[in-house]
Write a structure and sequence with these properties.
RNase_II/R_CS; about 30% helix; EC 3.1.13.1; five-stranded mixed beta barrel; five-stranded antiparallel beta sheet; RNase_II/R; nuclease; RNA-binding
Length: about 750
């Protein structure tokens, strides 16, 4: 009965007297009071006078400022929490806060009542000793120092980097977990980032044993029951340094169209549901590509061995065979368990050179006609997709390479080759999603919901100030039209950043909610099962459907477990991206340390009341503080810093800067506007030496690209998943409510 009463209050959304409850539900007074009082004790209802009502509470992660106040981050509008009312919450904890009546300024405020979920179970920091106690000084700004239990600390010196498990309570304390190293060496920072985000670096012994037991040869019985694609010109296109090949492609010219094959490694054949391999892959969720180090989702025997679609070797696949008309309409789709033998391993560099009019290497020249067809076909597919409203962000991407502890930053410049693969993967992902939806099968979908109304309204206002109009109704086509209008103009990066920051995060879900950014009704991830767990799950569903082994019991179990899998996969994806960004920023700060005082021409990527963020041509970003700029003030309406005599600094502007300081531990780089040195008197006839702009873009000299270690890509655009805004230390303080 309690559940019925609570649902009634939620449905009506208003207070009710005891007499109303008695009349509506036909309860006795004593019985009704017992139910209502129980709900009050649980905090699900409140009572004021003779009225019962739902408490005005909100739930969300909390941001805390060093001055003691905070904000509960909400989808619509953040809730201000005054000093003294944040409870025992730490930054980013999920909290429940009571909304209080507006203060003198007319704005609501809140009080944190409880912490629902802690953001961190472990903390990375530096060991110190004070008054006979061991203390952890956290790396993360804003976290309190932790007194440590003595166990495990014997022999460790002051300044050691360690990991501690946090025990929360009135006086939180830490328990030693692991020693990471000394100081700020790159190896120590890498271990610190892995520990901070709870990533899994080593595989358990039983997982490695299971992987090693997998035979390299494919059983003849399995080959016999699969469709044989080994007679086709199937090939792969990947980065120069790639080792795990998830996908292969082929194309055939038909009398009135094309047949395209997208062949994806059949990881589900080797990784059985519920096995140690599967459980470890679930816990990892995704492969993590850190600068200088990779944490794969699957052991190397699978990721670089039996599952990788290497040329000249038989490999099992789940294949999508699509027949397209001349107008690119899908005429027929077949899904098959297959076996392929890749005829070549091409790189993006080779394909891009071919697209620009250069030939292929001699050993791959036989694929010239196939590539020509694919480049033409996928370019038209892309144009058609953009016309349908898919959002296209053309932010530059930079490869981060670490060689012997040295950072190299290399721009990614293979747009046509990468677009070729991207379009075919998007096609396969969409068609698999449609197949599952049409048959009512369970799935893990990649969803991207449309922007919140308030975020869209703010975007409309901001774009209107720049001369761009958006309709009142949210539309991906309208957003894409604005992006196209801004292309090539000085304000292009401003417009793109504004649109991007208005979008919600893409995530995984067990429900098909569509993908706003891609303008698709049905979409999921199917094409990378070696490195993404949701893709592996989708493979299992598709294989069950093809083999007709999807029993009602299995379907019911998947429907029950998929929501939790989707939530975990989304969380691990966010952690992986955050770890990649953080370690990349560390290496960029290390790079900046080596180039203090040097001059560069950068672009403004952000403006705020405390300064301007500037990105150098190699992707390194730093802050030019307001005091270094001079008499500038921030104008939210103009989205710019306004200076004397009509000067202004806004997103997309070029700014000549010099590196003033760098703090790798805090991942911070300080820039200052470059000023020409004062002229020095010279002897007659002596020529002045011109100050050259330092080259920061390009591969390291005399290095063979094939011998380099794994790469990580920074500034990769996922819809709505942009680098978080830096905290604003000069944010205007709001008055404490009385």
């Amino acid at each position: 009965m309690q559940e019925t009463l609570l649902e009634f209050f939620k449905r009506t959304g208003k207070p009710h007297r005891l007499e109303e409850i008695l009349h509506r539900f036909g309860l006795e007074k004593r019985e009704a009071k017992a139910y209502l009082n129980a709900l009050v004790r649980q905090g699900l209802l409140e009572k004021r006078g003779s009225r019962y009502f739902l408490p005005n509470k909100v739930t969300g992660p909390i941001s805390l400022h060093k001055d003691g106040y905070g904000f509960v981050r909400l989808p619509e509008k953040d809730l201000f929490i005054p000093p003294g009312h944040t409870g025992d919450a730490w930054p980013d904890d999920l909290v429940e806060a009571r909304v209080m009546p507006p203060g003198r300024d007319g704005r609501p405020w809140g009080v944190v009542e409880r912490v629902i979920k802690r953001a961190r179970e472990r903390v990375v920091g530096t060991l110190d000793f004070r008054r006979g106690y061991a203390v952890l000084i956290p790396d993360e700004p804003g976290l309190p120092e932790l007194r440590l239990l003595p166990e495990g600390l014997a022999g460790l010196k002051r300044g050691s980097r360690i990991v501690a498990r946090v025990h929360y309570g009135k006086r939180p304390f830490g328990e030693f977990l692991a020693y990471l190293g000394e100081g700020e060496a790159p190896e120590t920072e890498t271990e610190a980032v892995i520990a901070k985000y709870g990533l899994r670096a080593e595989f358990p012994e039983e997982v490695l044993k299971e992987a090693e037991a997998i035979p390299l040869e494919i059983p003849e019985a399995e080959l016999g029951r699969r469709e044989d694609f080994r007679g086709l010109r199937v090939f792969t296109i990947d980065g120069v340094d790639a080792k795990d090949f998830d996908d292969a492609i082929h194309i055939e010219r038909l009398p009135k169209g094309y047949r395209v094959g997208v062949h994806i490694a059949d990881v589900s054949y080797y990784v059985k549901e519920g096995s140690p391999l599967d459980q470890e892959a679930f816990l990892r969720g995704t492969s993590v590509y850190l600068p200088g180090r990779v944490l794969p989702m699957l052991p190397e025997r699978l990721s670089n061995g039996v599952c990788s679609l290497k040329p000249g070797e038989d490999r099992l696949t789940l294949s999508v065979l699509v027949e397209l008309g001349e107008d690119l309409s899908v005429r027929r789709v077949r899904f098959r368990e297959g076996v392929i033998r890749s005829v070549a391993r091409l790189t993006y560099t080779e394909v891009e050179a071919f697209a620009e009019g250069f030939g292929l290497p001699e050993e791959h020249a036989f694929l010239a006609e196939d590539l020509k067809l694919l480049l033409d076909l996928t370019q038209r597919m892309r144009e058609k997709r953009l016309q349908a409203g898919a959002l296209d962000f053309s932010f530059p991407e930079v490869k981060v390479e670490v060689e012997d502890g040295t950072l190299h930053l290399i721009p990614q410049a293979e747009p046509k080759a990468r677009s070729l693969i991207e379009e075919l993967m998007l096609l396969a992902n969409r068609l698999v999603a449609e197949y599952l939806v049409e048959r009512g099968l369970p799935g893990l979908f990649r969803v991207h919901e449309e922007p919140l109304e308030e975020a869209y309204a703010k975007l409309r206002q901001a774009l209107a100030r720049l001369g761009y109009a958006l309709p009142e109704k949210i539309s991906s086509k309208a957003l894409q039209r604005v992006l196209l209008e801004a292309k090539g103009r000085p304000e292009e990066p401003v417009v793109a950043n504004l649109v991007l920051r208005s979008l919600r995060l893409a995530r995984y879900a067990a429900q098909n909610l569509g993908h706003f950014g891609l303008a698709l009704e049905h979409y999921l991830h199917f094409t990378s099962p070696i490195r993404r767990y949701p893709d592996l799950v989708v493979h299992r569903v598709l294989r069950s459907a093809l083999r007709r082994t999807l029993t009602p019991a299995k379907k019911a179990r998947w429907l029950e477990t998929f929501p939790a899998i989707a939530e975990h996969a989304s969380e691990m994806e966010r952690k992986a991206e955050a770890a990649e960004r953080e370690l990349t920023k560390y290496y960029m700060a290390k790079w900046a340390e080596l180039h203090l005082g040097e001059r560069f021409l950068g672009k403004v990527t952000g403006v705020a009341s405390f300064g301007a963020f500037v990105m150098l041509p190699n992707g390194v970003e730093g802050l030019v503080r307001l005091e270094a700029l001079g008499p500038y003030t921030y104008s939210e309406e103009a989205l710019a810093l306004l200076g004397p005599k009509g000067k202004r600094i806004r997103l997309g502007d070029e700014l000549e800067v010099a590196i003033a300081a760098s703090n790798p531990r805090l991942r911070q780089i300080d820039l200052v506007p470059y000023q020409e040195p004062q002229a020095v008197s010279r002897k007659k006839g002596e020529k002045g030496k011109e100050v050259e702009m330092r080259k920061v873009v390009g591969p390291p000299k005399d290095k063979n690209r094939d011998t380099r270690p794994e790469r990580a890509t920074v500034n990769t655009i996922y819809f709505g998943e942009w680098q978080p805004k830096a905290p604003n230390p000069a944010q205007k303080r709001r008055r404490k409510r009385r």
